[in-house]
Amino acid sequence: MKAQLFVLIAATVAFASGRAPVLRAARSSDVAGDGRTYIVKVKDNADVNRVIMRGRVVLNRLMASGEEPSDADVGSRKMEIGNAKFFTIHANSRLLEALQDDDDIEFIEQDTLLYTAACVPIDNSGLWGLDRIDQRSGTRDQCFDPVGDGAGVDAFILDTGIDVAHSDFRTGRAVDFKDLYSAFSEPYGPSSSDGNGHGTHVASTVGGNTMGVARAVNLVAVKVLSDQGSGSTTGIIGAIEDVVAYARTSNRKGVINMSLGGTGSSINAASNAAVQAGVTVVAAAGNSNDDACGYSPAGASEVVCVAASTNQDAKASFSNYGSCVDIIAPGQSILGADANSGSGSVSLSGTSMAAPHVAGAVALFLGSSPNATPDDVKSWLYDGATMDVISGFPGSTQPTTAPPEHICCALDWDFCCPSSLVRPMATPNRFLFVGSDGSK
Questions:
Q1: Virtual torsion, Cα 6, 11, 17, 23, nearest 10 deg
Q2: Domains identified in the chain, total number
Q3: Which domain does 237 fall in, by range?
Q4: Is 436 buried (19+), middle (13-18) or exposed (0-12) by CB count in 10 A?
Q5: 276 pairs with which residues across the strands?
């Protein structure tokens, strides 16, 4: 009988040079039913009905010899999605072994259970920002469940460098810009080192393995600030030029994060030019509790300017504000990677911490919309934002003064309206949202 069976199998199943693999559940708890149901993936150019027919011939012989039980089955369910073709079998190992030698079968996979999509657990209060930006309300659920992961997107961190050896980057995603673009001069030493810590913290919020928004984004260290935390306008503009040149030649989507600031028109002009060249620029609003329009690059018209909020959904006391602000994000007591500690973390506050939440969000969007322009990015941020949930930001342009000065102030005539009597311009009350629930 065994000799006859071998002849039958050889005649009905074309022998394959490479056997189709059998893929089993990684955990016994994930197995569906009794564990004997398998999904057979047929090669795209094969006739699924012929494969099922051959399988049934083999099964009938195996059942006749007692090597498969009476409840065994081949092809009780057939599924086709475009060119992808599948059918189910319910059997023991003997049939599996025979089907592995069918040239028209790509693989055989044990039927397993799938679950409601799990979020990333948030087990540290310092990561409250991640927990908050995927929620519409202030009630947090200790989870982070964003839409997308930023794969295929470059996030250029113009800062004090990145400690690429930190454990939160140990998937090879954090690299020195010099390694990608040799023309970059690195005015303050290798971008892959960070003697200050600011850039490392920022990068971990953009896309760290455990502390980041976009956990598959490519983090590119562009060291434009010294270990003392300062850098020249010339150096920063040169870096922006190099980043834009690289983005063009590589034909990859990217976002620039600048958690830095000062005053001057040159940085604003360079930042606007980068955006017009197709690279979204995210900038910190500044930490002076002042009008962001007076700072650079926060006041540049084309950038995404980010103000900071607290874990109580209020304006951070230090945050700049005003009409130049595009969006608000968490920026007080934010946990991030601690440079040169190996795997440590540190809590920092500032609009420098708010901006990378948004840069990470931009990476999420670009990862799923690779043809999006910077205008599309802003529209996505605006349209998706949770409105009017952050308290404490100026919401009125009306002056508080008595006649006759109130007439000048109401008309915005600076020459006769003392600046101390003018309330700051209203801040758009848009709060960053990256959750999978699109409800308003």
A1: -70
A2: 2
A3: 121-395+427-431
A4: exposed
A5: none
Domain boundary among 89, 110, 131: 110
Rg of the chain over all Cα atoms, to the nearest angstrom? 29
Q: Which residues contact residue 252 at a Cβ distance below 8 angstroms, ignoring those fewer than 6 apart? A: 152, 153, 154
CATH number for the domain spanning 186: value is: 3.40.50.200
Amino acid at 397: T
**Buried-exposed string 222-257: b where 16+ CB fall within 10 A, e elsewhere:** bbbbbbeeebebebbbbbbbbbbebbeeeeebbbbb
Beta-strand ranges (E) seen in 137-253 are 143-144, 154-159, 174-176, 218-223
CA angle at residue 314 from 428 to 378, to 5 degrees?
A: 30
Give the number of other Cβ atoms within 10 Å of residue 203's Cβ: 37
Same domain flag for 165 and 310: yes
Cα 314 to Cα 333: distance, rounded to the nearest angstrom: 13
pLDDT at 304 over 80: yes
- The string of pLDDT tens digits covering residues 177-222 is 999 999 898 888 899 999 999 999 999 999 999 999 999 999 999 9
Tell me if residue 334 falls in helix, strand or coil. strand
Tokens for 113, please give them: 């259970």
Pairwise CA distance, residues 262 & 250, whole Å: 30
In single-letter form, the type of residue at position 7 comes to V
Tell me how far the alpha carbon of residue 315 is from its chain's centroid.
25
Enzyme catalytic residues:
159, 198, 352
Same domain, 90 and 51: yes
Residue 274's identity, in one-letter code, is: A
Nearest CA to 318 among 282, 353, 286?
286
Task: Tell me which of 158-162, 325-329, 361-365, 408-412 is least confident.
Answer: 408-412
**415 domain-assigned:** no
- CA 161/CA 239 separation, integer angstroms: 13
Cα dihedral 18, 22, 23, 26, rounded to 10, equals -130
Same domain assignment for residues 90 and 168: no
- At 384, the amino acid letter reads G
Beta-bridged to residue 144, according to DSSP, are: 120
Same domain, yes or no: 179 and 328:
yes
In a domain, 74, yes or no: yes
CA pair distance 359, 214, nearest whole angstrom: 9
248-265 pLDDT, tens digit each? 999 999 999 999 988 777
